[in-house]
Design brief:
Elements lengths: L4 E6 L9 H11 L3 E5 L10 H14 L4 E3 L1 E2 L6 H14 L4 E4 L14 H11 L2 E5 L5 H4 L1 H10 L5 E4 L6 H13 L3 E5 L4 H11 L4 E3 L8 H12 L5 H16 L2
Parallel strand pairs: 1-2, 2-3, 4-5, 5-6, 6-7, 7-8, 8-9
């Protein structure tokens, strides 16, 4: 039986819906085997990001069979601090990669002073890079900005998280850009079935990953949406890739 893997979830030491225990309960309800986890950008300030990344690390140490740790770097704290987070997350914590979020952290991901140094540092580690891609900060996170980085570092797998959310123009732009950048993989979280199917049809099932954006969305509901949307549209083998197989391959599980 194929693994069911959610490629976009958040936990944080602030508790509530972001507590590890709540996260595990949501996984069980949805029948999800593993999740990619990163911090919640709304609940830290400045260098407090360190404790949030540490929370991810501690959670992975407790449940290594369930959680796939991914770091976070915020150059608006300072570029030096963001580079420190890249080192800690990839070397000390052994995370699979580092995420950059130009929306919640308010910077352009290809900004030569803020974005580029961090993206370059991640690429040099040989780990993965993830970008928030959405219309909530259209200029900061547009896929054309991610394309510049993807083309500079073609050996670096890049996760395009949200793939434009529910903005159809941005959904199509993400797919167009990914068509030129084979190192891009689209995480279909906080988006809709039309965008997910479009990406699969245009790029192939090997390039699209199931994601829920939990706890902002409910994983059991998003899983049901995926399964209903893909049923009869793609093969069972392609569904298995989207719902977990691609993460198994990319993450070397």
């Amino acid at each position: 039986m194929s693994l069911m893997i959610d490629a976009d979830t958040h936990i944080a030491p602030t508790g509530g819906e972001f507590a590890l225990e709540k996260h595990l309960a949501r996984m069980e309800r949805a029948g999800i085997d593993k999740t990619l986890v990163w911090l919640n950008p709304h609940t830290y300030k400045g260098e407090g990001i360190e404790g949030h990344n540490k929370y991810i690390y501690d959670a992975v140490q407790r449940y290594p069979d369930k959680l796939l740790g991914f770091g976070w770097a915020d150059p608006t704290v300072s570029v030096a601090h963001a580079l420190k987070m890249v080192r800690v997350c990839t070397e000390a914590y052994g995370f699979y990669g580092v995420k950059m979020n130009g929306a919640q952290n308010n910077y352009r991901i290809d900004d030569p002073e803020l974005g580029w140094p961090v993206a370059e540092a991640v690429a040099r580690t040989g780990k993965m890079l993830a970008f928030h891609i959405g219309p909530d900060a259209y200029e900061n996170t547009h896929p054309l900005r991610a394309e510049k980085i993807a083309q500079r570092y073609p050996e670096t797998p890049i996760l395009m998280v949200h793939m434009g959310m529910t903005n159809w123009d941005m959904n199509r732009a993400v797919v167009e850009v990914a068509g030129r950048c084979p190192n891009m993989y689209l995480v279909g979280s906080a988006t809709d079935d039309r965008a997910i199917l479009y990406a699969i049809k245009m790029l192939g099932a090997e390039r699209v990953l199931f994601g829920s954006d939990a706890p902002f969305r409910r994983p059991h509901v998003i899983r049901a949406m995926y399964e209903a949307a893909l049923d009869g549209e793609v093969t069972e083998a392609e569904i298995a890739l989207v719902m977990g197989g691609n993460v198994v391959r990319l993450f070397g599980l």
